[in-house]
């Protein structure tokens, strides 16, 4: 994943991030872990499960904690589960909210400052609510040459929103993406991380209009069902939706080299 801003780009205002003014640890009165643990000591899984978050409603908290415990249990050290837990809270709120930061910190025995530092480093963790359908336009080299920049300019004007902004109806948000690793289908767009290949300004605008009108759309490759942004975040948290093997993962230009190799009898060198 690419980084939108490094540590130097984080807010310097402790009050803005909800940090403890005297220690800078981000601890809250609801934390069941000691200050020494929050400053870097590794808690046991028993300590992790004993923490309490104030922000989420009890039924939401119960569900999130159940999923979080499953995720944390996959790692020998709880703090290693921070990235998937950030996706988990994003699947609840549509972005990584302040409640989400608190939840992750308390579940993993980290300071809130540590959690915020990570969530603001990666572009996939959003700092404000995203649309039901998050549309990414690749503007990296090959896509740009093939028309990605023009697609972005026209689509942004058409939708009336810019980078990481959401339409007033809450249906669509837009993002300028650096690379989707799909250069053979340039210019490429993604909707909730599913591919829409070989786009034009006209097809991109129609795609967004259809999403806002509630029409059912299928990605070019992958599952026939287009999930929501929150559903995609849940999958990225490591909680599968059962659609990973649905639909073709490669076709068209991606397979041309393989076809030529088979026709000419080419094989990889023996190990």
TrEMBL record:
Major enzyme class: oxidoreductase
Domain of life: Bacteria
Gene3D superfamilies: Glutaredoxin (3.40.30.10), NADH-quinone oxidoreductase subunit E (1.10.10.1590)
The keyword Metal-binding is assigned to this record: yes
Keywords, in A-Z order: 2Fe-2S, Iron, Iron-sulfur, Metal-binding, Oxidoreductase
Region ranges (Disordered): 1-54
SUPFAM superfamilies hit by this protein: Thioredoxin-like (SSF52833)
InterPro entries: NuoE-like, NuoE_dom, NuoE_N, Thioredoxin-like_sf
Cofactors named for this entry: [2Fe-2S] cluster
Enzyme Commission numbers on file: 1.6.5.9
Pfam family, one: 2Fe-2S_thioredx
GO molecular function: NADH dehydrogenase (quinone) (non-electrogenic) activity
NCBIfam families (alphabetical): nuoE_fam (TIGR01958), PRK07539.1-1 (NF005721)
Family membership noted in the UniProt record: Belongs to the complex I 24 kDa subunit family.
Protein name per its UniProtKB record: NADH-quinone oxidoreductase subunit NuoE
Name of the gene encoding the protein in the UniProt record: nuoE
């Amino acid at each position: 994943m690419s980084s939108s801003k490094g540590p130097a780009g984080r807010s310097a205002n402790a009050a803005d991030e909800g940090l403890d003014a005297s220690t800078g640890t981000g601890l809250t009165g609801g934390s069941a872990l000691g200050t020494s643990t929050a400053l870097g000591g590794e808690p046991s899984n028993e300590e992790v499960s004993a923490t309490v978050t104030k922000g989420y409603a009890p039924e939401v908290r119960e569900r999130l904690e159940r999923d979080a415990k499953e995720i944390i249990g996959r790692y020998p050290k709880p703090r290693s589960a921070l990235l998937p837990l950030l996706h988990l809270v994003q699947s609840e709120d549509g972005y990584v909210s302040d409640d989400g930061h608190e939840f992750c910190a308390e579940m993993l025995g980290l300071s809130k400052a540590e959690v915020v530092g990570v969530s603001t480093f990666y572009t996939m963790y959003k700092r404000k609510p995203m649309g039901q359908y998050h549309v990414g336009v690749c503007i990296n080299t090959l896509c740009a040459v093939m028309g990605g920049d023009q697609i972005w300019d026209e689509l942004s004007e058409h939708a009336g929103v810019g980078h990481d902004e959401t339409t007033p109806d809450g249906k669509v948000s837009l993002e300028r993406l650096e690379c989707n690793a799909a250069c053979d289908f340039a210019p490429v767009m993604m909707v909730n991380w599913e591919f829409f290949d070989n786009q034009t300004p006209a097809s991109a605008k129609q795609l967004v209009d259809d999403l806002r009108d509630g029409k059912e759309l299928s990605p070019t490759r992958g599952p026939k069902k287009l999930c929501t942004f929150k559903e995609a975040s849940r999958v990225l948290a490591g909680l599968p939706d059962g659609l990973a093997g649905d639909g073709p993962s490669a076709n068209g230009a991606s397979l041309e080299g393989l076809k030529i190799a088979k026709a000419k009898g080419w094989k990889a060198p023996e190990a």
